[in-house]
Amino acid sequence: MARRITIPVRSFGSEVGTPAIPEVAEWLKGMRGEEADLATYRLSRSLADQESVAVPAAGGMFYGERLSGAFTGMVDGVLVDEPGIDPSAPAADARYVVARRRDAWFALPAPHALGLRDAYIDDEEEFAGVIVAGYARLAREMRDQGVRGHVLVADQADEAELERLAGNRFLFFPRDPGRFDLEVLLEYQDDLILPAGDLDRAADLMERFRVRKLILLDAGVDDLLAATALVDPDMLEVGGYCSGEDCPDYWKTLVDRAFIAR
């Protein structure tokens, strides 16, 4: 009889669209006595869909609006006054998430993906450093509430961000690995994240960089079996980021096929 080895599924976040007002109103009935708003609802939805995921992550790119609001001195995403951080809303969100799933991570847009601009410091490098430092502080505040770590959803390998944040309970998720400079990312991060269909890239990258985990996006049974030619099963994870409408089915399907039969 074949032995079945379960491979953990890791979430890199989800997208949750803007719901209809009746849907939110019904949800709010169960939130009496708690502070809640649309961002809280979307966090709740993103997390509830991941019940069977081994490493869940609340949030996603949609959390950028809430995150932007934590940077003070900004008007419409533009720095116009002395920069600062107000961590109260993200910290409250962290408490909300951890109360529902103690092992949850949080998925945020990476600093460059937040789209903040400067009209005050007048120095691009210094401004970028201020934003990255703000991320580090916000993450500490959220981890103080029990969040396990942070996924940073990234469109590019920004070395200033990687140097400051990678590895400190931050995991950079390349949203489009086919266009992402994975070589730069692997200089700072030892988790290799690839679409399952790009498994043929793994051998070369693993030969040139130290890789602790191979995380295959949207992998199926055959993909995982093929990956065992490169790594032991305990170095494998299945990764996912739900960007569609049917996230419950998306996560269930990933979990159901995350195994190796031997």
Tell me about this structure.
It is a single chain. The chain is of the alpha/beta class and 262 residues long. The protein has helices at residues 21-29, 38-48, 64-68, 88-100, 111-114, 124-144, 159-165, 182-188, 202-208, 221-227, 247-256; strands spanning 4-6, 9-14, 57-59, 71-75, 78-85, 105-109, 117-118, 150-154, 170-174, 191-195, 213-217, 236-242, 259-261. It has a single domain (4-261), classed as TIM Barrel (Alpha-Beta Barrel). It is built from 11 helices and 13 strands. Strands 2-12-11-10 form a 4-stranded parallel beta sheet, with helices on one face. A 4-stranded parallel beta sheet has the order 3-6-8-9. A 3-stranded mixed beta sheet has the order 4-5-7, with helices on one face. Helix 9 links the parallel strand 10 (191-195) and strand 11 (213-217). The termini are close together.
Helix count from the secondary structure assignment: 11
Largest sheet: 4 strands, parallel
Number of domains: 1
Count the strands? Answer: 13
Strand order, main sheet: write it out. 2-12-11-10
> End-to-end span in angstroms?
9 Å
What Rg do the Cα atoms give? 19 Å
CATH fold-level label: TIM Barrel
Q: Tell me the series of helices and strands, N- to C-terminal.
A: EEHHEHEEHEHEHEHEHEHEHEHE
- On the 0 to 100 scale, the average pLDDT is 93
The amount of beta strand, in percent, is 15-25%
Give the topology, please.
Elements: E1 4-6, E2 9-14, H1 21-29, H2 38-48, E3 57-59, H3 64-68, E4 71-75, E5 78-85, H4 88-100, E6 105-109, H5 111-114, E7 117-118, H6 124-144, E8 150-154, H7 159-165, E9 170-174, H8 182-188, E10 191-195, H9 202-208, E11 213-217, H10 221-227, E12 236-242, H11 247-256, E13 259-261
Parallel strand pairs: 2-12, 3-6, 5-7, 6-8, 8-9, 10-11, 11-12
Antiparallel strand pairs: 1-13, 4-5
